[in-house]
Amino acid sequence: MADSGEAEILFERRGALGLVTLNRPRALNALTLAMLTAMQAQLDAWAGDAAVTRVVLRGRGGRAFCAGGDIRQIHALATAGDHAGVDAFWRAEYGLDASVKRFAKPVISLIEGLVMGGGNGISVHGSHRVSSETYSFAMPEVGIGLFPDVGMTYVLPRLPGLTGTYLALTGARIGPGDAHAVGLATHHAPAGDFDALVEALAEGAAVDAVLADHARPVPEPGVLVAERARIDACFAADTVGQILARLDADGSAFAAETAALMRTRSPTSLTLVREQMRRGATLSFPQAMLTEYRMVSALMRGPDFFEGVRAAVIDKDGAPAWNPATLDGVEPGTIAAAFAPGPAPEPRFDP
What is the pTM of this model? Predict the structure, then answer.
């Protein structure tokens, strides 16, 4: 339940506006299956309501817009043997992301604090992403034995140069300056203006005009822009091992830190993600979402996701025992199988 005893996700109609508020601040507004299902139903209703001309997404609490899907819930379902429940979660999350992508009306995300994993799935595919001064983007799934999902198979390979591949293989965080530089955010405004933004949008004024009225200069870019040439050179290598070799040979502090970070990640995830980024560049959005469904279904049958969640959020020892423990131990057949159709009827992500 929500921290306040209210629902985990709140919906409100204000004039021309449909307002969605993620309401689990102590859990950094992580998305549960119930939240995903409720938001899908509400978006479907607003899609057919001519009086609602735009939708705004917010997260309560200030610390996070949304830190992603509730991996504790997924872990609990799986360890209880509820594999149908796990499958229902992924189908609901990916289906909602696809609905945001094709939603015919503006979807404006007001992003304060962390936006990770599934938080990017419900925001980055919308028409407008407004960063605040505390905005912090990451797709850190390689650190829990997963991969950047929620449509990142489509989004990340289309970022400038190899910046998307860098973000996917490291899970590194970036701030608003870098996010604007690569197109992950579209507008910038102080979080203190978000209430006023909502009210102005509710009055029905043109979305772009309202956002322009509250716009502030975007902060200076950070590491992603400063190290762009080095990222493009190192992450163009064909394999993860070759990327690490280029980073090791580079000699810069950035390269050393990046290589050290990658070496803490799941070898299986790293190998899978390198192939994901290669394939994603030529996939349509529905094809990318189906690819992710196949990948996540395969990883739910392996050990690393559950070990990664244990180390990160259950026991919190920060010491996952990856299996296999090295890149050389990852079987090519395991990677190929993750992109192949599974035994169950597959969902569709096109209209």
Answer: 0.96
